[in-house]
Specification:
This protein is α+β, with helices and mostly antiparallel strands. It has a domain of 126 residues. It has 17 helices and twelve strands. A twelve-stranded antiparallel beta sheet has the order 4-5-6-7-3-2-1-8-9-10-12-11. A hairpin with a 2-residue loop joins strand 11 and strand 12. It is globular, with a radius of gyration of 23 Å. The two termini are 23 Å apart.
Length: 443
């Protein structure tokens, strides 16, 4: 169920309750104590005002800025805090090429002044089709999720998420996380896209493509990847428009990587380990317009049906091994082709459509999903005592789950589910409590 777990994590990350950059998961006080830095406004404003010449300096700067914004009473005791943050927010001092310092300072100032935080960039139209545009035409299963939110994540939600990370990750592993951040600097992840092109004859020649869109320091990240890839080699090239490309690969190890400017990372390879770089170059060829992409292939008509405001998408043919992975319990058969879309707004709207081989299979799948719904409702009414959930939240979750209704019509199965904002928040809290419980059981 690893594939499903990844998409659940990305769904939670992109729902607007948490930040979408690397440092958003790091507890500033824990980090500074680990680095023997006094967590006091005078010390932290000095770090905030220091230009980030390297990744370690950037991490300290951004965490210091965020801490000052989240502790207004302490920050206001130090006279130079507000003026220094204002200069950073205006782009006058201590800047980085990616704009992280300016962005962090603007948010910190808003908190100090009791103002709403600056609006994040809006979710662009047609984000899903743009995310998939570089994948080769032979891809048979693909998807994407945009992590940008229509609203700013609340500081309290972000702090709670960081506290959860600190609780779940032992001190030694947190140290490794801090070391990673100090090597690559801050990374912002706006969107993730994936594609799979199976080889029915030689499974090790099946191809997997990943595209990460966001922001980060290309050299810092490239150096880290190269140093941690066995036999890694690095090539510096330019695309036809003159944009810098950093290609990182190993002859006998997958995946290979392409860093495109400071905003794109391609990670790709065969399911076997050899010749991963050629799979990356397939993506670059589509990007350059030399070979056709997904939009020119057998899924062209379905892609035109994707809503322009969609923030999540899964589409394509489910390979046999994935069908086996997802079948069990009441669900004995799966669609051979699916289209799932996710739209974020005041409510979160999930639409599922699948195609089966036979009408009786479609009905069996619909019945199985609805049986799972009933089991889920029953489980909500019998949560273990360790899971604390407010009665109103439990009612909202139960009502939302009861609205799940998979329908079969001929060989097509479909379902639309709308999740209200409060129900989504309750779902987040429930998932976090379950994660905490599982972690406690494993200790």
């Amino acid at each position: 169920m690893a594939f499903a777990s990844v998409w659940v994590f990305l769904f939670l990350l992109g729902s607007g309750h948490f930040g979408n950059d690397l440092l958003s998961v790091i507890n500033a006080e824990d980090y500074f104590k680990a680095r023997q830095v006094e967590v006091k406004a005078p010390d932290l404003i000095t770090l905030a005002a220091k230009a980030p010449a390297d990744a370690k300096t950037q991490v300290a700067q951004l965490l210091a800025i965020r801490w000052l914004g989240e502790h207004p009473e302490e920050a206001k005791k130090e006279a130079k805090v507000h003026d220094t943050l204002a200069q950073i927010a205006q782009g006058k001092i201590a800047q980085d090429a990616e704009g992280f310092a300016q962005d962090y300072a603007r948010r910190a100032l808003a908190r100090l002044d009791g103002q709403p935080p600056p609006r994040s960039p809006a979710l662009p139209e047609n984000s899903m089709t743009e995310a998939l545009a570089w994948f080769p035409v032979q891809a048979s299963l693909f998807g994407a999720i945009d992590l940008r939110s229509a609203s700013e994540a609340k500081a309290s939600d972000q702090a709670a998420f960081r506290d959860l990370v600190s609780q779940l990750i032992p001190e030694r592993e947190r140290g490794l996380l801090y070391g990673f951040a100090e090597t690559v600097g801050n990374l912002r992840l706006d969107r993730v896209a994936m594609a799979y092109a199976g080889d029915p004859v030689a499974s090790l020649k099946s191809r997997v493509y990943l595209r990460f869109t966001g922001k980060g320091h290309r050299k810092w990240l490239g150096d880290f990847v190269r140093q941690n890839l066995t036999g890694g080699e690095i090539k510096e090239e330019k695309d036809p428009q003159g944009q810098p490309l950093t290609l990182i690969s190993s002859e006998k190890t997958a995946p290979a990587y392409a860093l495109i400017g400071d905003t794109e990372l391609i990670m790709a390879g065969h399911e076997g380990n050899e010749n991963a770089l050629e799979v990356v170059r397939e993506v670059l060829a589509v990007r350059a317009g030399r070979t056709p992409g997904i939009a020119k292939g057998s899924f062209a008509d379905q892609l035109k049906q994707v809503p322009s405001q969609a923030a999540g998408l899964v589409m394509g043919d489910l390979p046999p091994d994935m069908q086996r992975e997802f079948t069990g319990g009441p669900v004995r058969v799966l669609p051979h082709q699916v289209m799932i879309t996710l739209i974020k707004g005041e409510t979160l709207t999930l639409h599922f459509q699948g195609t089966m081989d036979k009408a009786e299979d479609a009905q069996a799948f619909a019945d199985g999903v609805n049986q799972l719904k009933d089991k889920g409702v029953e489980a909500l009414q019998n949560l273990p005592p360790e899971i604390k959930i407010k009665p109103d939240s439990l009612r909202l979750l139960t009502q939302t789950l009861e609205e799940v209704n998979m329908e079969a019509k001929g060989t097509t199965v479909s379902m639309t589910l709308e999740i209200e904002g409060e129900a989504l928040k309750a779902l987040h809290n429930l998932v976090i409590d379950i994660i905490k419980q599982k972690a406690d059981e494993e200790r």
